[in-house]
Amino acid sequence: MKQNSLKKHLLVFAAATLIAAVLIGGLLCAMGRTFTFPVHEYTPYRDVLVEFETPGVAEVISKEKKDDNWVIRFRAVAPGSTAVTVICPHLNEGYQLNDSVGTYLHVTKLRTIIEVGRVRFSGTHVLCCGLSIYFLFVGVYLFLQYRRQKKTDFFSHETVLYLGLSLFILLLGLLFLALEGFCLVMVEDANGEMLFFVLQYALTALVIVSLPLVILFAFAISFSNVWLVRHEGFRPGNLLGILLGAFMLCGVGACIVIAIVNARDLFSFEPKTVVISAVRTIVSAVYLYFSVMLFATQYCCVIAGRRKVAFNKDYILILGCAIRKDGTPYPLLQGRVDRAVAFFRRQKEETGKEAMFLPSGGQGPDEVISEAECIRRYLCTQGIDEAQILPEAASTSTLENMKFSKALIDARTPDAKVVFSTTNYHAFRSGVLARDVGLNADAVTGKTKWYFWPNAQIREFVALLSRSWKLHLTVSVLLIAVSLLLSNMGTLVNHILH
User: For 148-161, how does the pLDDT look when each residue is reduced to its tens digit (9 = 90+)?
Assistant: First the structure.
């Protein structure tokens, strides 16, 4: 990511965070000056009497009966803490003892009231609404950056990053939007305890909700792997889909198990509980980040070969791959060449412009000729004039395909317009590699068999992830840090109040 773009994004996020903090904080302070305390009426009460252990901290401004509850409203008077006892005399004088309920209130320096223990306060819906708007804004902003990147520089790591992060943040925004709806409908149940609980389990909840999709994905990709092994033979590389499906199911299972173990110790500051909560948050954050990046990568790979390519190219670069022992192309390579020839003929028909073919690929240790030579021979059988073919037979990888081909192109035609032909699953990473060496090229793609495509897509994802591992590591660490802060907010507030 360019430094100027990074600074711009950080400034936008900082400004949005500051504005959100000021607005939400101001509204929360205003609404938090009062606190509503419900007392359930198990038997009819004549009245409810409130006693403060420390006078002058808070006062009662109203008390009324609603259905089976007495609702007491307190107002902050001065900073401090006080125990509160609510005495409930029975309406039936036959009862010898009055019921009583106790709680503990803390008034902050900002004159907001927090119920200690359950970390409850007024204005929860304001905070939920503010968080949903904030996350939705950031998510939409990142998605717009993805759209911009897609138009101006599609073949880049930033395209995947923007799309994946926007999905990650938008999911959080939708979660808090749903919580805001709950707060508006269930007003009496909307309190700080509920909000902090959601903050603590937000990422884990998203992971658990994804379980049906994960099961469907694991089944589908495992099924494709079975067919792949049946047709292509057993190799460890042909089991990537099964391994990925198992990994994702284990990730969801781990989050569920840790959540169950940790559920009984809400807001506890004991070291064991804090560690378990932190592990659950980290596992959930990493799992979600991995999942959205997997989705973003697969999506970019799918649309990479479906982009409209202008018929104005000077060179058609054909990326080589394995060939048969007799020097003829396998169907995979043949599909790439056929797609290149189709583009060549369509461009000539539409514009009259003839492009130069540039087959690229060296000779492997088990190959009788170079991949470039194999492609050249096949092109000749398709009626292509040999004078229109410029082979590059030294490369041993896709990166070298792009690097060495660029050198040949620059030597003949500086600022040439280039399109490369490859298989559909390989288009996006090839475009990224072309960009890395300074070759600005579009892509046209040949198709592959349905059972081969999912496994190949996973290889592309792993390759792209490893190429930009520093970027993904930095972003994931930041997400984990923010997630840990939000998920432990209730625990920290409760600990401070105690």
Answer: 999 888 999 889 99
Same domain, 296 and 380: no
> Nearest 5 degrees, angle CA 290-CA 293-CA 297?
135
CB-CB neighbours of 292 under 10 Å: 20
Are residues 239 and 283 both part of a single domain?
Answer: yes
Could you tell me if residue 38 is inside a domain? yes
State the Rg of the chain over Cα: 32
CA distance 262 to 272: 10
Tell me which of 67-71, 207-211, 217-221, 417-421 is least confident.
67-71
Cα distance between residue 233 and residue 251, in whole Å: 29
> In angstroms, what CA-CA distances link 432 with 155, 296, 428, 444, 488?
5, 15, 6, 14, 39
Distance CA 439, CA 392 (A): 15
How many domains are there within the chain? 3
User: Which amino acid type is present at position 384?
Assistant: I
Residue 177's DSSP bridge partners are none
Query: Strand runs (DSSP E) across 364-480, as ranges?
Result: 418-423, 441-446
DSSP code for 24: H
Per-residue burial over 215-250, b if 16 or more Cβ lie within 10 Å, else e, is eebbeebbebbeebbeeeeeeeebbbbbebbeebee
| Boundary-marking domain end, from 53, 85, 115 | 115
Whose CA is closest to 296, among 154, 133, 162? 162
Confirm if 340 and 318 have CB atoms less than 8 A apart.
yes
pLDDT at 95 over 70: no
* Co-location of 286 and 385 in the same domain: no
β-strands 113-115, 356-360 pairing: unpaired
> Residue 415 — left, alpha, or beta (φ > 0 → left; ψ -120 to 50 → alpha)?
left
Find residue 197's DSSP bridge partners: none
The reported pLDDT for the residue numbered 418 is: 96
Q: Which of 183-197, 201-215, 266-280 ranks highest by mean pLDDT?
A: 201-215
- Which of 220, 216, 164, 296 lies closest to 455 in space, CA to CA? 220
Q: Give the Cα-Cα-Cα angle 178, 183, 189 (nearest 5 degrees).
A: 130
- pLDDT value at 460 more than 80: yes
pLDDT at residue 139 above 70? Answer: yes
Distances (CA, A) of 416 to 282, 305, 419, 478: 48, 21, 10, 41
Largest CA distance in the chain: 111
- Range(s) of the domain holding residue 83: 3-115
What is the amino acid identity at position 196? F
DSSP string, 393-418: ----SHHHHHHHHHHHHHHH-TT--E
Report helix, strand or coil for 168: helix
Least confident of 38-42, 100-104, 370-374: 38-42
Residues 203 and 342 both lie in one domain: no
